[in-house]
Amino acid sequence: MSYRVFKHNQAYGPRKGLMMKKTLIASLMMLAGIANAAKIETVVASTADRTNVILISGEIVKGDYDRFINSIRSINNNKPVTVLLEGPGGSLTEAIDIGLEINRKKYITVAWNGACASACAYIWLAGQRSIIDLDRNAKVGFHAPYYEDKFGNKKSSNVGSAILGGYLKELGAGYGVIAYATSVDGDSIRWLTETSAKDIGLTVEFFRQNNTKQESNNPAMEKAKAEITRTIGYNKTFNQQLSNLVNSGQGKSEQADYIRRSMATNTQFIKHQQDIIDRLQSR
Fold it and tell me: What is the number of domains present in the chain?
């Protein structure tokens, strides 16, 4: 799987690449801003537009898969489909069903307006192209499936994680992506960054109209320290997932072996970064 940061001349959206009209975007913004609006809305492409648009906004609930299928049926042309996504999460099973349909039909998915987290993020991963619109402050966040006990406490769901892992594997995701998406518990969330996408081998397009990515001004020592902190965090989550696999009798599985290899590689990387710090401090 590859990693790319899309530049302004490779735009996905209304400004350049898909050439949607301003009226189309204005209507979608209106829909996204209405309180208690329908979860799923469709804008069928006109003669001048290159793509149809389906907007999925808000919490994913029971019945949204059927609504999504009805939205597809309302499209009466052969133009491609772009699915715009924003929302806090919701039903895992509905999200998986929607994601599988998106993947089968090779639709484009775009996190386009604020946060797309949890179940929304699982749908987003299913796109033939998965895009994050940085110009609209979009971000994509992951955590493992969970349920709430009778006291309202969030508890990790091993069954849900297994189902999610199987879904991600069906999408073609590698173990690095699966571990990244499922190793944070329900009380937390991991926001995808350009660096982490590259690290886990995830194909994702970070869209910005003006490609003004800033270079870090941190000195080499601060950068090495930051790399150590980040990698320790990865190993912590990997270790938790490995413990879960061991406790469930999967300690000798392919996924467990992959996690062990990743942790060993990370440990060597930490040592290398510490050597850099030691050399700089001795100057």
Answer: 2
Say if residues 150 and 69 touch (Cβ distance below 8 Å). no
Q: Where residue 126 sits, what CATH number does that domain have?
A: 3.90.226.10
Whether residue 165 sits in one domain with residue 99 = yes
Asked if the structure places residue 265 within a domain, the reply is yes
Spatial distance between the Cα atoms of 144 and 168, rounded to a whole number of angstroms: 12
Domain shared by 184 and 225, yes or no:
no
Q: Which of 200, 206, 203, 37 is nearest to 112 (CA)?
A: 206
Token code pair at residue 138: 């979009």
CB 39 within 8 A of CB 60: yes
Q: What is the pLDDT along the chain (283 residues), one digit of tens a residue?
A: 333 333 333 444 433 333 343 333 333 333 333 333 337 999 998 888 889 999 999 999 999 999 999 999 999 999 999 999 999 999 999 999 999 999 999 999 999 888 999 999 999 999 999 999 998 889 999 998 987 777 777 777 888 889 999 999 999 999 999 999 988 887 789 999 999 999 999 989 998 875 444 333 346 777 778 888 888 888 888 888 888 889 999 989 988 888 898 888 888 888 887 877 777 665 5
User: pTM of the prediction?
Assistant: 0.64
- Domain with 194, as residue range(s), is 8-207
1 within some domain: no
> In this structure, are 188 and 71 located in the same domain?
yes
For residue 254, give the 3-state DSSP assignment. Answer: helix
For residue 125, the tally of other CB atoms under 10 A from its CB is 25
* 113 part of a folded domain: yes
